[in-house]
């Protein structure tokens, strides 16, 4: 039994293009670089990546040029005929999993609202809060839970 799984990580070459087939199926495509060799012999090949269905419909807007993404999927060679009649091949990843960059707008917005709230509190209340220890701790839990530094959905084991 052969296993055909490829994981590629890199900066997106161009914004994802979302297409809809006559049957109503969504297909999003974008490109990722794959480097081989080193030094003067380093070569960059571009892999075409395709997402299908609900994943393509929902995530294509988040796959923008320059964004660092990691995709995992099936590696295939698509064969097609050019307009001049010659045969051509394109390396393609049929995406099953994708790890996108975090959305940049949420954290700065939360920090700005927190700073505004802190400014509106009187100085005396802030000093009282800083001098007293927090009383909402739980003695049953002596330490914080340990988590992995990467999303659980990006862990793959064979």
Please provide a written account of the structure.
This protein is α+β, with helices and mostly antiparallel strands. It is 20% helix and 37% strand. It contains 3 helices and 6 strands, in the order ββββαββαα. A 6-stranded mixed sheet has the order 1-5-6-4-3-2. It is globular and about 40 Å long.
Topology:
Layout: E1 6-11, E2 17-20, E3 26-36, E4 43-52, H1 53-59, E5 68-81, E6 87-99, H2 106-120, H3 123-131
Parallel strand pairs: 4-6
Antiparallel strand pairs: 1-5, 2-3, 3-4, 5-6
Helix content: 10-25%
Q: Please, what is the oligomeric state?
A: single chain
Shape, principal axes of CA atoms: globular
* Proportion of residues in extended strands: 35-45%
Total helical segments? 3
Rg, nearest Å? 24 Å
Brief account:
This protein is of the alpha+beta class and 158 residues long. The chain has helices at 53-59, 106-120, 123-131; strands spanning 6-11, 17-20, 26-36, 43-52, 68-81, 87-99. The protein has a six-stranded mixed β-sheet.
Quickly list its features.
158 residues, alpha+beta, 6-stranded mixed beta sheet, 20% helix
């Amino acid at each position: 039994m052969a296993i055909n799984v490829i994981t590629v990580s890199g900066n997106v070459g161009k914004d994802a293009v979302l297409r809809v087939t006559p049957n109503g199926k969504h297909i999003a495509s974008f490109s990722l670089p794959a480097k081989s060799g080193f030094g003067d012999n380093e070569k960059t090949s571009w892999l075409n990546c395709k997402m299908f269905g609900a994943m393509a419909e929902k995530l294509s807007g988040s796959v923008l040029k320059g964004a660092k993404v990691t995709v995992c999927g099936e590696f295939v060679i698509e064969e097609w005929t050019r307009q001049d009649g010659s045969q051509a091949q394109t390396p393609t990843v049929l995406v099953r999993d994708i790890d996108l960059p975090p959305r940049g707008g949420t954290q700065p917005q939360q920090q700005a609202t927190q700073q505004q709230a802190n400014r509106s509190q009187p100085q005396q209340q802030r000093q009282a809060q800083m001098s007293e220890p927090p009383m909402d701790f739980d003695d049953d839990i002596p330490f914080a839970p340990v988590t992995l530094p990467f999303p659980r959905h990006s862990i793959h084991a064979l």
